[in-house]
Design brief:
Layout lengths: L14 H8 L10 H13 L3 H10 L8 H34 L5 E3 L1 H4 L14 E4 L5 H10 L15 H4 L3 E5 L6 E5 L13 H7 L1 E5 L2 E5 L2 H17 L5 H11 L4 H10 L3 H9 L8 H7 L6 H9 L19 H12 L3 H8 L5 H17 L51
Parallel strand pairs: 2-4
Antiparallel strand pairs: 1-2, 3-4, 5-6
Helix pairs in contact: 1-2, 1-3, 1-10, 2-4, 3-4, 9-10, 11-13
Length: about 425
């Protein structure tokens, strides 16, 4: 591992994954048939099938990919499109409920970024992300509970205060999974986004119509910053980040360089965007924006946090690395509160016979495994990454065409054996 801070990079993407994220541009070779077979399960899991198909269509090459790959991508695109349409239609009305109850909100991430794509359906999403003022977070959460929106039963926290003090928000859904809301009080990772609070987000937000609903959405510059910040989280989670890299490329090429850089400097994220935009393939690099950004130095504290969040470092492999995402006071409470969790949490994890000795023994085993080199995923929430459906793995032609199904390939050590989940 380099001694330099491990900044987000698209180097781990294979040719088909890069094509899905960026299209046929300089620096992105056309994928081979083998590359498509290898990458299709990942493209499906990361909801990038619509992007891949549209970018194939843009160059008239949608008929050049193997038929099984095309069928798998088309099936996944239909599923993703219908799911996203349903989630948007069922969840966006709740934002009006919040507004009518005096709760301000700003829409961020997937649904907010989709408007920048030439075809909105290219950008799929699995939930609606909003940010509310920290002071209104608990009120918004109570209203959500009134409307049947709750976190998963297994989403236990060592202390109830962790929702506001030790993570940026939480995932809510109704019992049928039709309404899916990510309710944030800060943009994550919190420590990196400390200058992009709700009031600034709201001041620059734009009111637009999304699926028939008038909502406040993050400005293009803030959407770009949030995507770059999300790459830090996804790098720690060992995701390929196809949709997020695509967001960066699409939004960065739609902005006025001067005004964008001025705001990025104001929120102390010019160094991150310089690195992220500089990591784009040559064909989608916004040269004027990159020139205007220059080469700002990485703040020492940010560089240290990035090194600690490196997914292959000792700290990065342990659940305690979540503290690195937090401002110092919140990190202290996270570590202290995790060391001595509430009785309610212990019972939720271990049952009525729970004891602190059980918890501390578990913590010791995690530490031992991390030192040994194992990747210990977060104990504080269920996995949010669903495996690719069986239909997602296209059949690779063998000696007899179509005779053998292609198993999902194992992830390379560089990308990790499994995806890490956030608390």
């Amino acid at each position: 591992m380099s001694r330099r801070a491990p900044l987000p990079s698209a180097d781990a993407l294979g040719t088909a994954a890069r094509f899905a994220a960026f299209g046929a541009v300089a620096g992105v070779p056309l994928p081979s048939q083998d590359a498509w077979f290898d990458a299709t399960p990942d493209i499906v899991v990361e909801r990038a099938s619509g992007m891949a198909l549209q970018r194939l269509r843009d160059i008239g090459a949608d008929g050049d990919v193997p038929a099984d790959v095309r069928d798998a991508l088309m099936a996944a695109r239909r599923h993703d499109s219908m799911r996203a349409l349903g989630i948007a239609g069922m969840t966006l009305p709740f934002l009006k409920v919040l507004r009518d109850r005096g709760i301000r909100s700003v829409l961020i991430k997937g649904l907010a970024v989709a408007r920048h794509y030439p075809v909105r359906e290219m950008r799929s999403f699995g939930d609606v992300d909003i940010v509310v003022p920290p002071g209104q977070f608990h009120a918004a959460l109570r209203i959500a509970h009134e409307h049947g929106l709750h976190p998963p039963a297994s989403d236990l926290q060592p202390h109830r205060s962790f929702d506001l003090q030790c993570r940026e928000g939480l995932n809510l859904a109704d019992e049928h999974g039709l309404v899916r809301l990510d309710l944030h009080h800060h943009v994550g990772p919190w420590a990196f986004a400390s200058h992009l609070g709700f009031e600034r987000l709201h001041a620059f937000a734009e009111t637009i119509e999304v699926h028939g609903h008038r909502v406040r959405v993050a400005s293009p510059t803030h959407s770009l910053a949030i995507a770059a910040l999300h790459l830090i989280s996804e790098q720690w989670q060992k995701k390929l980040s196809l949709a997020t890299w695509s967001d960066v490329a699409v939004v960065a090429n739609s902005l006025d360089p001067g005004a964008t850089v001025e705001e990025l400097r104001a929120i102390h994220l010019d160094w991150l965007l310089a690195a992220v935009v500089g990591a784009l393939p040559a064909g989608v690099q916004p040269s004027q924006l990159l020139t205007t950004l220059g080469a700002p130095p990485i703040p020492r504290t940010a560089a240290l946090r990035l090194r600690l969040l490196d997914a292959d470092s000792l700290v990065g492999r342990h659940p305690a690395s979540w503290a690195v995402r937090l401002p110092v006071p919140n990190a202290v409470w996270f570590l202290g509160g995790s060391a001595v969790p509430s009785r309610e949490y212990l019972v939720g994890r271990f049952g009525d016979d729970a004891s602190y000795r059980m918890w501390w023994s578990q913590a010791f085993r995690w530490a031992t495994r991390a030192v040994r080199g194992d990747d210990v995923s977060s104990p504080y929430s269920p996995g949010r990454t669903s495996p690719a459906p069986a239909s997602a793995a296209p059949r690779r032609p063998g000696p007899v065409a179509g005779a053998a199904a292609t198993p999902r390939r194992r992830r390379s050590p560089a990308r990790g054996a499994r995806r890490r989940q956030c608390p």
